[in-house]
Amino acid sequence: MQNRTTPVVLQIIPELSTGGAEQGCIDIADALVQAGAHAIVVSNGGSRLHDLARTRATHIDLPVHSKNPLIMWKNVYSLRRIIKEHKVDIVHVRSRAPAWSALKACEGTNAHYMTTCHNPYNFHNSAKKFYNSAMTKGERVIAISHHVAQYMHEHYGLDETTMRLIPRGIPMDKFHPSLVTSERLVKLTKEWRIPDGKNIIMLPGRLARWKGHSDLIKAIALIKRKDAFGLIIGPDKGHTEYRRELEDLIKEKGLESDIRMVDNCNDMPAAYMLSTVVVSASTSPEGFGRIPVEAQAMGRPIVATNHGGAMETVLHGETGWLVPPSNPQRLAQAIQEALALTPEQRVVLAGRSMQHVHENFTKELMANRTLDVYAELLR
């Protein structure tokens, strides 16, 4: 058992799979261990457990992904036992499903309860609004963007006394052009069968309707450039019907040889380096959105839709373009402007983009600001 003077922080997340919330959880666990604290993560497991293990944090398996009321109630007692056994100082929840269990589990203990809100949670009735409210009951509530903070203020009355704005951060020791070798680029080029001499228009992100893949396909059809090649990267996660719709749209536009869909990518820095322009075409506003930030860190022009977190991470006309959502015509126009950049203009944009990310959206900044919030509670 750790020394009684060692701070103990328990993070709770439904599963450790791909995603920004999951990556943030792992990054903060790593920062806690590096700072000499005891980091514990409770989740239902997942594909990222090996990444968490590398941080030397403790993982505890619990079905905190479940929305079943009986399981959620059982989780209260399991979490309370963990809190007492490990002498947890702070319980940090990152999702609604386990938030109610954690809130109840903290009662009667010395643990502080706090949350991170990763999105403006939708609600269409008072019951759903109440369900979401577990994320607003923390002694501190981290909002990952002004967009999320504004939502929490408007709908739940939170202000700066409780909320802390901490944007997501990306690891600059991973997302930097100089770190990507030619071997990695050649490997992806062969694996994805990318034609020589093409300008790659890349849209990364899982296959979900709101990610705007169909808008990109329509935009590429409007561009009518023989040197343009679309690359859609992301798993369908069971949405096979949507994948078929996109494949049908590609055929309808006669773009079978001009657009490729790739299931997944384990080397996104190299994928960004292959691209001429990166697109984030979400039709609904994202809480933050990692794609525009990662693209800028790699010095790539980014075209994103002008709502949600992208409005805070992309500098329109300086590091990229912001266009109206669900508007293939404006999307095509911005892509054409990005493709028309001279080599000198691309170098200037790349430098500006990388500096922008370095000053505002690094993993170190996010970790330090989060540790400061923990310190607030411990004081």
CATH class of the largest domain: Alpha Beta
Strand content: 15-25%
Helical run tally: 15
What is the alpha-carbon Rg in Å?
Answer: 22 Å
Structural classification: alpha/beta
Question: What is the distance, rounded to the nearest whole angstrom, between the alpha carbons of the first and last residues?
Answer: 23 Å
CATH fold category name of the largest domain: Rossmann fold
- Tell me the CATH architecture of the largest domain: 3-Layer(aba) Sandwich
Strand order of the largest sheet: 3-2-1-4-5-6-7
What's the number of structural domains? 2
Helix content, binned percent: 40-55%
Task: Write structural notes for this entry.
The chain has 379 residues and is α/β, with parallel strands linked by helices. It is 44% helix and 16% strand. The chain has helices at 20-34, 49-54, 69-85, 96-106, 126-132, 146-156, 182-191, 213-223, 240-252, 268-274, 290-297, 310-313, 328-339, 343-360, 363-378, and strands at residues 8-12, 38-43, 58-61, 90-93, 112-117, 140-143, 163-165, 199-204, 228-233, 259-262, 277-280, 302-305, 320-323. Helix 1 (20-34) crosses helix 15, helix 7 (182-191) crosses helix 10 and helix 8 crosses helix 13. The model has no long low-confidence stretch (mean pLDDT 94).
